[in-house]
Amino acid sequence: MVSYKDIQLTTGLSLATISKYFNGGNVRPANREAIDAAVAIHGYRPNAIARGLRSGKSRTVGVLLPALDNDFHLTIIASVEQRLREVNIGVVVATSPSADAATVDLLLGRRVDGIVAVPSPHDVDALSRAAGEIPVVALDWRAPGLDVDGVFLDNRAAGQLAARHLRSHGHTAALVLSPEPPLSSVAARVDGFLAELGPGGVSLAAPLSVDGARDAVASVLASVLGPTDAPTAFFAPNYELTLGALIAINESGRILGRDVSLIGFDGTDLARASRPRLTIIEQPMREIAEEAARTVLDLLQGERAPARERLLAPRLNAGASVARVTDTVTD
Q: In whole angstroms, what is the distance from residue 240 CA to residue 151 CA?
């Protein structure tokens, strides 16, 4: 059986350095490369269970998600796993469809050393308790009552970015779609949009449920090409509303980017599939996940401090779905 001593004979490094490397400590790049080469030569595989029993650490981090049904959640898994693998930490992925699933307790039962979570409202209390034992990092939205480190999109800036793009194309009145009840992230996008476009310049729709997004958008399309003071554009501040708006516009017979303007949120593939290409506000999903992984690593290495919040900037991915007002066709 291959052991640390075999790695030592091949590399000439001390057992202390080799042990530090396999336990996630910082070693010199040259030493790391030498150990990696020796591992490849000998086919060495650390015994994670035995090592965990000795250290009291499992060298795993839980990734807690509401579901596995969108690009954002899948990108989180891939990016967190990639970053943690670099320091020999694995991930345990779990979804939390309901409070009955007791998913946080399940992860604690697996002895994870930390949790990266897109928190569901029903998991806030359990995550708060877990944070008293292990590092917890929240993503996507600020859950009231969950006082932990967080990495989020600057959602207010996302709404402002959408408003500025519309204004640069001559739009001064727009309809903002919002699910009911909105998460804090969506509410911040709407607030930023309203503040940037200015009072009196926006017609805000009554809160719309995600399931009703398609019908709600269709119901206001008739007014878009009506009076001159009617809304000339839509902002859909999450993916589900973006999809509903696109379906409604396509089924209405209106031409996107000519008869009606739309800015969506996320959904790069959806934007590429629409004709003309949809303008969207993107959140840097990979960067958010990588920053969350770095944060949990810092906490695992003992850098505990009052909970910190990191905001990452949104990006505008401009397509051709926003018409200039002077180009808008009226009947």
A: 22
User: Which residue intervals of the chain bear CATH 3.40.50.2300?
Assistant: 55-152+285-311, 155-283+316-327
- When the pLDDT of each residue in the chain is averaged and rounded to a whole number, the result is 83
Distance CA 35, CA 31 (A): 6
Q: Are 19 and 54 in contact (CB under 8 A)?
A: no
Report how far apart, in Å, the C-alpha atoms of 38 and of each of 6, 49, 88, 196, 267 are: 8, 22, 16, 58, 43
Q: What is the pTM of this model?
A: 0.74
| Dihedrals phi, psi of 165, to nearest 5 degrees | -65, -40
- For domain 55-152+285-311, say whether CATH 3.40.50.1010 is its number: no
Rounded distance, CA 331 to CA 326, Å? Answer: 14
Q: Which residues are within 8 A (CB) of 301 and not within 5 positions of it... i.e. 6 or more apart?
A: none
Q: Collapsing DSSP states into helix, strand and coil, what is residue 233? A: strand
| Beta pairing, strands 315-317 & 279-282 | antiparallel
Q: How far apart are CA 298 and CA 71, in angstroms?
A: 26
Q: Do the Cβ atoms of 267 and 245 come closer than 8 Å?
A: no
pLDDT digits (tens, 9 = 90+) for 64-115: 999 887 888 999 999 999 999 988 899 999 999 888 888 999 999 999 999 9
Query: 117 φ, ψ to 5°?
Result: -135, 135
Q: Residue type at 170?
A: G
- Residue recorded with tokens 């990191």: 310
Q: Is the dihedral of CA 9, 14, 19, 22 positive or negative?
A: negative
Identify the helix (H) or strand (E) that includes residue 152: strand 149-153
The three-class DSSP label of residue 12 is coil
Q: How far is 27 from 41, CA to CA, in rounded Å? A: 20
Instruction: Classify 155-283+316-327 by CATH class.
Output: alpha beta
d(CA 235, CA 262): 6
